């Protein structure tokens, strides 16, 4: 991969004036003019396979690119190298058991997956979790958003040569995984959010542990920004790269940071609030250019906004139950099982058979770190889902790669692929 020519990309981060050819695609200031070649020129094209490998270029994505010199004239993303059949697996498990496989659909944001699926099932049941459980859910998924963005930031920076950012980001993420482990016993794929509430209440020392993490977070974020915000190499590799206009982003069905970086103000937490998000004060970060740098800034600001949401939720966390008291839905407490035959029968029935869900179909969307993830869940009245279909935001992120990459240098593919933030357990279900 070559270093970009100095005349084309100034080292101070200024965006070069686009040529007339570049103006034909609004905002694509980092692209080169690509003329339609004759047969001889087409014969001189080189085809390269980028990936699949991990963590660089992300997961099991493979992009087949055609090059003229060092300019990308065609980019074709290919997925499907890892297929775990999670939706079909969920349809063969009890309603509560399916949470464990839904976790693994996005291994960087399992709690967001938990919440979307659980909210869909609760809609079918006509059920609402207790208030303390709802607040804990908000805290957990916002911490999960921060942890996911930190992985994106660290691997993105590593792909572009900023090695120290990788270590700082993963160190910050460790603190969040410690909180998950303290609450659920697992650091990844905790299956903490359950139908009717959460797995269990957080330990007495957990709130103090969380407050200590929140206090140390802002200075660590400033440290990361000092490393990248005005770094001339970072600016050189991200400004004007992989531009998507608002019209392109909407046409491609993008959501989340990819859409908001193009200036479109859509966030599921605001548009269709769930778990009481209407009570929390937060801004929806927006970009103006729709390039890789804007996608970086949007995610950085989202982490700061998530921090504020967690602080608000923690301040209103009141004592109370964390699971519904309906023994036909929730396992009875162990102390109750030891003294009550009825509770013991409920326990056996829930473990062996689960519970039946009234017939119906629902769609539940929520704002995951990668955008709108939606759960279409259908019940035929039995103890297992009849249909589980998931709208994965990463799939739409990936289909935007050709629009972002074609006309750029091959060296720019690193930045373009990194800013899509795909998680391919989610894409290749």
From TrEMBL:
Keywords, alphabetical: Cell membrane, Membrane, NAD, Quinone, Translocase, Transport
Key word Nuclease present: no
Gene Ontology CC: plasma membrane
Domain of life: Bacteria
Compartment list: Cell membrane
All residue ranges annotated as the NADH-quinone oxidoreductase subunit D domain in the record: 159-429
Annotated membrane topology: Peripheral membrane protein
Catalyzed reactions per annotation: a quinone + NADH + 5 H(+)(in) = a quinol + NAD(+) + 4 H(+)(out)
A GO term for molecular function: quinone binding
EC identifiers of the protein: 7.1.1.-
Protein's UniProt keywords contain Iron: no
Pfam families for this protein: Complex1_49kDa (PF00346)
Region (Disordered): 1-34
Amino acid composition bias (Basic and acidic residues), ranges on this chain: 1-12, 22-34
Quaternary organization: NDH-1 is composed of 14 different subunits. Subunits NuoB, C, D, E, F, and G constitute the peripheral sector of the complex.
Protein function: NDH-1 shuttles electrons from NADH, via FMN and iron-sulfur (Fe-S) centers, to quinones in the respiratory chain. The immediate electron acceptor for the enzyme in this species is believed to be a menaquinone. Couples the redox reaction to proton translocation (for every two electrons transferred, four hydrogen ions are translocated across the cytoplasmic membrane), and thus conserves the redox energy in a proton gradient.
Matching HAMAP family: NDH1_NuoD
Membership in a protein family: Belongs to the complex I 49 kDa subunit family.
PANTHER family named in the record: NADH DEHYDROGENASE [UBIQUINONE] IRON-SULFUR PROTEIN 2, MITOCHONDRIAL (PTHR11993:SF10), NADH-UBIQUINONE OXIDOREDUCTASE 49 KDA SUBUNIT (PTHR11993)
Name of the protein this chain belongs to: NADH-quinone oxidoreductase subunit D
Name of the gene: nuoD
């Amino acid at each position: 991969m070559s270093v970009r020519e100095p005349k084309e990309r100034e080292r101070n981060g200024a965006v070069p004036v686009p040529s007339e050819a570049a103006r034909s695609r609004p905002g694509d200031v980092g692209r080169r003019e690509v003329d339609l070649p004759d047969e001889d020129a087409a014969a001189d094209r080189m085809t390269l396979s980028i990936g699949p490998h991990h963590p660089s270029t992300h997961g099991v994505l493979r992009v087949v690119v055609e090059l003229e010199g060092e300019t990308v004239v065609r980019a074709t993303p290919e997925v499907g190298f890892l297929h775990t059949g999670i939706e079909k697996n969920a349809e063969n498990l009890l309603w509560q058991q399916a949470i464990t496989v839904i976790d693994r659909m996005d291994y960087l944001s399992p709690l967001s997956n938990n919440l979307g699926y659980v909210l869909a099932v609760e809609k079918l049941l006509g059920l609402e979790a207790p208030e303390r459980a709802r607040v804990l859910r908000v805290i957990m998924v916002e911490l999960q958003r921060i942890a996911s963005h930190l992985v994106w930031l660290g691997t993105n920076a590593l792909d572009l040569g900023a090695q120290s950012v990788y270590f700082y980001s993963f160190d910050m993420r460790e603190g969040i995984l410690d909180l998950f482990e303290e609450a659920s016993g697992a650091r990844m794929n905790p299956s903490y959010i359950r139908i009717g509430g959460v797995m269990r209440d957080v330990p007495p020392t957990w709130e103090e542990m969380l407050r200590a993490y929140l206090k140390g977070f802002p200075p660590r974020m400033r440290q990361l920004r000092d490393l990248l915000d005005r770094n001339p190499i970072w600016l050189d590799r991200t400004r004007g790269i992989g531009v998507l206009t608002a019209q392109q982003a909407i046409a491609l069905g993008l959501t989340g940071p990819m859409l908001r970086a193009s200036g479109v103000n859509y966030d599921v937490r605001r548009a269709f609030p769930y778990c009481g998000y209407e009570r929390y004060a937060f801004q929806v970060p927006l970009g103006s250019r729709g390039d890789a740098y804007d996608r970086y800034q949007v995610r950085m600001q989202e982490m700061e906004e998530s921090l504020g949401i967690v602080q608000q939720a923690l301040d209103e966390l009141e004592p109370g139950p964390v699971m519904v008291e309906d023994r036909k839905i929730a396992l009875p407490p162990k102390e109750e099982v030891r003294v009550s035959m009825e509770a013991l029968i409920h326990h056996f029935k829930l473990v062996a058979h689960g519970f039946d869900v009234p017939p119906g179909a629902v769609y539940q969307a929520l704002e995951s770190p990668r955008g709108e993830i939606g759960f279409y869940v259908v019940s035929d009245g039995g103890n297992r889902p009849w249909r589980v279909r998931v709208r994965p935001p990463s799939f739409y992120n990936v289909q935007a790669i050709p629009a972002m990459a074609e006309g750029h240098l091959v060296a720019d593919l690193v930045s373009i692929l990194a800013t899509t933030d795909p998680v391919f357990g989610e894409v290749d279900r």
